[in-house]
Design a protein that fits this description.
Elements lengths: L28 E2 H14 L7 H11 L3 H10 L3 E2 L6 E3 L5 E3 L11 E2 L3
Parallel strand pairs: 1-5
Antiparallel strand pairs: 2-3, 3-4
Helix pairs in contact: 2-3
Organism: Setaria viridis
InterPro entries: DC-UbP/UBTD2_N, DC-UbP/UBTD2_N_sf, UBTD1/2
Pfam family, one: UBD
Length: 113
């Protein structure tokens, strides 16, 4: 139990989340193509191991702003190894790797219309 003047620990499970660095896809893609890639990843992610609940929390965090994403990963007990969420672990040590395309948009995204 801390005293009234102590500083609360704000990050119990690893690093504070940061916005992913800009990245470029191998070729320019549309938002629809990016969404399809993301959907395919999230549909197959639980098959790589780990817990479905952690995958669900990671998806929610990836789709949120940084503040909400931080709250989600902290609440789910996710240990963030890379601050951009590309590498995370659960409390049991299971590894969760997220590709950059589920976390941010590429610099060569084609905006339709």
């Amino acid at each position: 139990m801390g005293c009234a003047g102590s500083t609360p620990k704000t990050d119990d499970n690893g690093k504070k989340l940061k916005k992913p660095k800009p990245w470029k896809h191998t070729q320019a893609i549309t938002l629809a193509q990016l969404r399809q890639m993301r959907d395919e990843f999230w549909d197959t992610a639980p098959h790589y191991g780990g817990q479905k609940e952690i995958w669900d929390a990671l998806r929610a965090a990836a789709d949120s702003d940084l503040a909400l994403a931080q709250t989600i990963v902290d609440s789910a007990g996710i240990i963030v190894s890379n601050s951009d969420m590309t590498l995370c672990y659960d409390e049991r040590g299971a590894k969760y790797e997220l590709p950059k395309y589920v976390l941010s948009e590429p610099t060569n995204l084609i905006r339709e219309g």
